[in-house]
Amino acid sequence: MSDVRQKVRPELAPFAQRLTSAIEAAGGLARVVKELGKSRATLDRWMNAQAAPSLLDIADVAKLCNVSLEWLATGVGSPETETPAPIETSDVVYVPILDAGVAAGLGAVNDDPPEQVGTWPFTRRFLRRIGAVAERARILFVSGDSMEPTLHDRDPVMVDVGHTDIQHGFIYAISTPDGLIVKRIQRNVDGSITLISDNKDFYPPERLSSTDADRLQIVGRVHWQGRLV
């Protein structure tokens, strides 16, 4: 099996097909690479289902290719863009940005409580779509590489601090004696859980007994990620 085939992520194949279709209809890869400001190698990884772009990158591609962001990101609806309804001021939520890190690796030590350093505007409609409650949403920053390629060092992530019930396979911010960490959580049939790093080549899974799992301090579930470049 070739190195390229080994790196393909089957779950990204539908997105990669939509992306390829949109790029071809927009004039081809060379034009998109030039106007998007991304390298050809990066676009090749996206189109070959080897890596997932951030939501902000998907939005940039959708705008450039004149296709629906919802269709490109999720496959729902039609590729054709529609004129959006005006956003009412009351529909905008300013999510607090905290000077706090969630470690994708060793625990991140933060001030208690962390300082708010700004806000990030979202619409309530968008927050409902991703399943986050506006009043409980907080923006934190990833530190480290254990969750690559899903989350990268310095990525902003939205954590719903009220969403502390563990659902199989989702990513959570977790408080540990060493600080905050961010991991995917897998429930096991015996009541134990496994903390999973997406960068499995360098960070092995950590299994917790059912007793330790009951004592796990969940800060909240990650519902959204951005990408700082």
Q: What's the gist of this structure?
A:
This protein is an alpha+beta fold and about 230 residues long.
Kindly describe this structure.
Helix content is 28%, strand content 28%. The protein has 229 residues and is α+β, with helices and mostly antiparallel strands. It has two domains: 3-74, Orthogonal Bundle (434 Repressor (Amino-terminal Domain)); 94-225, Umud Fragment, subunit A (Ribbon). It has a nine-stranded mixed β-sheet with strand order 2-1-3-4-9-5-6-7-8.
Tell me the CATH superfamily of the largest domain: Umud Fragment, subunit A
Uncertain runs: 1-6
The oligomeric state of the chains shown is single chain
The CA-CA distance between the termini, in Å, is 33 Å
Number of helices: 8
Radius of gyration: 19 Å
Strand segment tally: 9
CATH architecture of the largest domain: Ribbon
Give helix % range.
25-40%
Largest sheet, if any?
9 strands, mixed
Order of helices and strands: HHHHHHEEHEEEEEEHE
Q: Decide which structural class fits the backbone.
A: alpha+beta
Overall mean pLDDT stands at: 84
Query: Per CATH, what is the topology of the largest domain?
Result: Umud Fragment, subunit A
DSSP strand content: 25-35%
Widest sheet, order of strands: 2-1-3-4-9-5-6-7-8
The total tally of domains equals 2
Query: What is the top-level CATH class of the largest domain?
Result: Mainly Beta
Global shape: globular
